Amino acid sequence: MKNENRLVINGGKPIRDTYLPYGRQWIDEADIEAVVNVLKGDFLTTGPVISRFEQQIANYVGSKYAAAFSSGTAALHAACFAAGISEGDEVITTPMTFAASANCILYQGGKPVFADIDPFTYNIDPTAIESLITEKTKCIIPVDFTGQPADLDAIRQIADKYNLTIIEDAAHALGAVCKGRKIGSISDMTMFSFHPVKNITTGEGGVITTNNQALYEKLIQFRTHGITRDPKQLVHNHGPWYYEMHFLGYNYRMTDIQAALGLSQLRKIDGFIKKRKHLAALYDEAFRDMKEVVLPFQKQDCNSSWHLYIIRLKLDLLKESRKEIFEALQEENIGINVHYIPVYYHPFYQKLDYQKGLCPNAEKLYEEIITLPLFPLMTEADIQDVIEAVKKVITHYSAEGKA
Ligand SMILES: *Cc1c(COP(=O)(O)O)cnc(C)c1O
């Protein structure tokens, strides 16, 4: 949405004629054929493709199990159920995330407790986590923000010390690697999302990976109404048609149509990430010498999956706030974004009595960030347009030399 009252800096034409989105899917003929094949077959949902997709996801991340869901949010809800979160339990997460990372706690009657972020990595700060633990704490939900793995070793130590379950929100991080281990093989449960802006897509969809059989079985049962047909689990058994519902689950199943798209997309994930990494390096190169911006932090011992490329503005070197700079970039037809509004800023959370000031590092970061376009289908010319626009706008608003 453009602000119609604002003009392009210095007048004239915007740098781009057409709008460049901040993220988008890449669907090729093989993807289309895979979906069409399911449509021509016998099963539209819960057929053979779903288990193949789950198997391939598990193989790719190096986990024992993978359970697919209708969305990443449904997958997080199921993980909270499987972790045993119930009324009054506290769960520690980051405010610098999409609302779903905290909403899933509320679905189960739990209480989200927000721990502040590390000001350099923008990921949840393990020291802040430990300071918030009480007898009611049950779980930690770290987010691999932008695709950069959270401090998983330190979080594991805390979880072991206090007997907590880790549900890793890796919606951004399919394909990321931390100290030689793929994200998805490390935490008790890991969630990936397949929304179209994420690293691969199924339209809507999500998955939980885990190495724990008991958790896996709960996840599977939760996504289909709490129903089981497993003879070992049945309380009664009236015959071959018989099944039982053991707890209140949901219909959170992924269709075979979605799974077919996911399988086809998964074959391309490493190429997608390679392209994202290449484009991110071009941004780094172009902005390295600009004093007014801080570039994304890169951990030495981890590989990011480069879901998002976020620049942080040094507002003391700029004459205007992030809002003016954001609007000026929009005028150039650059599709930028802000990830994220701290979760507890939302009116719903404010009504639950979360106060501003809770996580100062996250609140400060929120004032200073802009997400630049980054997706594998971007051309070098697209990247050059963004670079040109950022340089134009930042130079225009720089406080340097204008004093
Ligand atoms: C996208 C996203 C989700 C939710 O995934 P959906 O598949 O859209 O439900 C959760 N957490 C984070 C950090 C996300 O980016």
UniProtKB/TrEMBL annotation:
The keyword ATP-binding does not apply. GO terms for biological process: polysaccharide biosynthetic process. This is UDP-4-amino-4,6-dideoxy-N-acetyl-beta-L-altrosamine transaminase. InterPro entries: DegT/StrS_aminotransferase (IPR000653), PseC (IPR020026), PyrdxlP-dep_Trfase (IPR015424), PyrdxlP-dep_Trfase_major (IPR015421), PyrdxlP-dep_Trfase_small (IPR015422). CDD domains: AHBA_syn. The modification N6-(pyridoxal phosphate)lysine is found at residue 198. Belongs to the DegT/DnrJ/EryC1 family. It comes from Bacillus oleivorans. Keywords: Pyridoxal phosphate. The keyword Metal-binding does not apply. One of its GO terms (molecular function) is transaminase activity. Gene3D superfamilies: Aspartate Aminotransferase, domain 1, Type I PLP-dependent aspartate aminotransferase-like (Major domain). The active site is at 198 (proton acceptor).
